[in-house]
Structures are given as structure tokens and as C-alpha cells.
């Protein structure tokens, strides 16, 4: 850019005012940079990164709660069938409760291991007995991620002594023959039990109980419990699981937010009273020091769109920010849906706004320099403006600003803009002289949006880079901010990819499958050929019942590897416990048949090697070139063909 162009720049216009008053010029320069959105945009970026971290962690912990820890429907159904056959007196009360608990103990233990929780319990209705004790089974597991045949990590907290002997489980030091509940801890039993009949399905009456101690000196736990009825609809008691706070916080690492001295995560609850949110689950001495017990959190909105607030009532002189993300613990219009749980991330202001403050420090230095330079800056403003841009580069803040005036055809930009946009020297010179060419260049970039708003991908010789473009128009002047967000985008993509993986098989999960269906619909509308394959494992329940769920999980993992190995060009998804789907483009039908038979043969051989029957029923559907078929219809055809094969396999087995 030549001297004449520089003389018409924003910096020179500010310099004319500086001649009249150095102080006024400096203030205008600072105001201009602020209006350009550099500080505000960097602050917004910090809020967005904070929000994404908390959101991703909330999705992770909610997934564990809803898909792993509370996945015991199989066991409640088993208990319901069992209690339907139990003897009752003329008042309908269960008889021989001790014998019933002994018989139910293996099912409760299996639920404990399957859900990978720190405890599982079955509490029976005590009838007319009002002594505060309940006939119950209450097992705890010291290491949920490790299960062995000797139950070495498991102990009995409450229940008949014979249960401990028969299951080879040791009793805890606080063991009781019956479970003693008090006003301080009985909510996890009474709330779900008292809700029987409020919904047609007892599974909708599940209750997440806030932290409590089962006995003095015991460990703090949260529980999820549902009312238990037999198949005739008669009340039996309550069945559920517990998660200790120490185990829960293994899924909430404070290093997510800050590497050291992190305040970490808090779980809060809103019960519909005055819109207040109070801390529900806290962990560690640092949180207990700054938070005022269970008092409601006083929150001042900073960025409501991203859920960012300033925590006003805390013990300390620091300025602390809180990011709130609601977790869907209950379905709408269920008895406890008014209890809304939130994951709350806490960060110190100095750590959260580190980069915006670095920009502010640069502005202060620039202000001082302009004061010292005096009238000389009026002549040499272009050099000063260049030096300011270099300060931004040295500060490692990847931000550039440009402006297009309403008069003339020139574009004014900081030194960072050409570097961030990957402009050659020829492009830079051409764009500075012609607004239309520069706007056409930006429009071409915007034709390739990403999942994040205003973020676009640039193909560079050294690799892909992601930038955020922010546009502004005021009084005919168009300006914008260009920011390199490559590191932030790569981290976000990595978190999204991890959330899309099935935890057991490491293939893609059902959530990823459902999200991509819109993309496949678009491909079908464009006439691209797609093939959808459905797979269903045979005899999984029998393997689980005979050999245990660990062997069943190995069976599922091997099947996933066999399908992935046979269909190397396809995305594989686990869409159910024993169901898989695959979607691929342009593969001939005979190749599909060959790959399916290959994977099925490998699975069958695996079952024979391990002493059980195994196999895969499969079916597929291929779109016609000129068909207007939607992806859902294609999926239904594949699913139908798979179940037809499964029927044939069952009929062959019977014959």
C-alpha cells in the first residue's frame, strides 16, 4: 500500500484530530478499535469456548446417567415377573420377604455390575410396620469399572445375612439386617414409591435424589430409583442405583476448564422456586471454600445466549464466572420434571478473559506511545499503525480488521488480514484498490460454511485453517473482523467426534447416525446411489445369560470389528444393543453380498471358538438411480430384509 493510500487510512483521519489535541486523538483511536469489535469479539470468543466445554461435558455426563447408569430395565422387568408369583396375605401384603430378598439378590447384583454404578438396592414396602426399618438389599461396589467372579470389590450394606454367604459378598462395617431410613435420607425411597399410579409406565416415575448419606459417617451419594410393581400392578417397593460423588466427579475433571487451580464443575438444581439455582453437588476443598453452602447462587447475566453469568455471592475477592447447561434428567410432565438439574462450570475471570485483557494491555501501550509521540504521529501515523499491527502479531492474537468506506473504492486492512486470509502480494494490492473484488473473495469463502456460525474453512498449502468472519455496516461503511480459530475448531471437532463414538465398540453411535440422515436425504435427492445395510446379532441374550455380560460385550465388540473389516469403505453405526447399520455409496450388490457373508462367517466362527452359538442376520436396500425414495424408506426396506433373514434363520434352527 503506497503513501497516498496510507494518508487516506483510518489512522491518518485520527491523526488529523491528534494535531488539535493529542489526548483526544488517543481516546478516539482507542474508541475506534473498540467499535471495530476486536475486544468485544475476543471476549465473546472466550465465552463461546467456555460454553462449548461445559456443554460437551454436560452431554457426556448426561449420556452416562441416561444410557449407562440407569439402563436396568431388563432387571426391573425380571423382578416384576418374579414378585407377581410371590405369596400375599388377605391385605395384599407380601409374605416371606426375607426369602424373596434372598432369591432376588443375584438380579440386584447383576444390575449393579451391568450399570457400572457404585451401588444397587431393592427396598420392599414395609406394610404396616412403622419402626423405620425396611426389608431391603443394598449392595455397594468399590470399583465399578472392574468385575470379577469372586465379587471381591462388592459388599453388602443391608440385607439378610444369608445373602452375603450365598453370594460370597462381605458385609460392610455398617451392615444392618434391615435398611434404616430417617427424615434426612428417606426421599430416595418415598418420592418414587408415593408416585405409583401417577403415570401408566413406572419407568416415567424415576427419581434422581440429591446427595445424602445413608448413615452417619457414610459416603455422600446420589441415587436414581423407580417404583417397583409386579405384573398385576401391585406395589412392591423401590429399585435403583447409587453413584458416589467421588465416582461422579471422575467424569467431571476440573482440568477441562483450567490446567491448575481450577474451580471445576458443580451440579446445581432449580426446583421452580423464584427461579433460583442452588448448588447440589460440590467436590473438593476449593469449591467448598468459595461457595456458600447450599444457598441459592446469585447470578448476574454476562452472555445469556451462551449461559454465562457472574457469580455474585461467594467467599473470596476473585471475580468468578459460571456457565450453566441444563441436563435433561426427566421427561416433560412427569412428577419430578420441575426439578431441573444443571451442570455449572466455574472459572476465574483472569483465566477466562486472559486474551481480551492482553488486547486491552496492547491498547494501553499504544495510548502511551501516542501521547509521547505527540504531533510527530500526525506525520508518521501510517508507521505507527504498522507498528501497532506488529504488536498484535507479537502478542499471538490472530485477529485482523478491515474497513470499506462509502466513498471511493478502497479497502483498508491491518497487517493480519492478508496473512489470515492467505492473500498473495498481488491479491493484497488488488483488493486494497477494489472493494468489489475483495467482497467477491469473501463471498466465495462464505460459500463453504461449517457447523459453527460465521466460521469458515480455508484450504492452504500447509493444511486447513479455520477463520471466523464478523461483518458490520454502519452509515454506509462496511467493516469486519477476521480471526483465526483453528485451534478452537480442532478441539471442538475432537470433542464432537468423541461424543459420536459408541463407548463399547468404538464405532459410531445412534446419535451420529440420526444426525447424518439429513445429509443422506440430500444425496438421494441429487440421484447419488446409496446402500443401507442392517445387521442383528443372534443369541446375544443367551450368551449374556449363560456366560455373563462381559462375554456378551466381547461378542458385540468382535462383531463390530468383523463388520467394519468387511465394509472398509462404509461408516458403521451401533444403533441398538445388538443392532448395527452401515451406509455406503456406489458399491455393487454382489460386493455387498460378499462382504455381509464374510462378516457373518467370521462371527459364526468366533462363536464356535468360544463355545456358544453366534451369528448375524443381515439385510440391505439399494436406492434406484431415478427414485425419489427418502432415506427413511431405504432404511425401512433394509430393516425389513434383515428381519426376513432372521425369521429364516430361526425356522432353520427349529427344523
From TrEMBL:
Question: What is the top-level taxon of the source organism?
Answer: Bacteria
Domain (GGDEF) ranges: 528-655
**SMART domains the record matches:** GGDEF
Matching InterPro entries:
Diguanylate_Cyclase, GGDEF_dom, Nucleotide_cyclase, Rev_trsase/Diguanyl_cyclase
Keywords associated with the record = Membrane, Transmembrane, Transmembrane helix
List the SUPFAM superfamilies: Nucleotide cyclase (SSF55073)
Name by which UniProt lists this protein: Diguanylate cyclase (GGDEF)-like protein
Look up and give the organism this protein is from: Hungatella effluvii
Read off the lineage from the record.
Bacteria, Bacillati, Bacillota, Clostridia, Lachnospirales
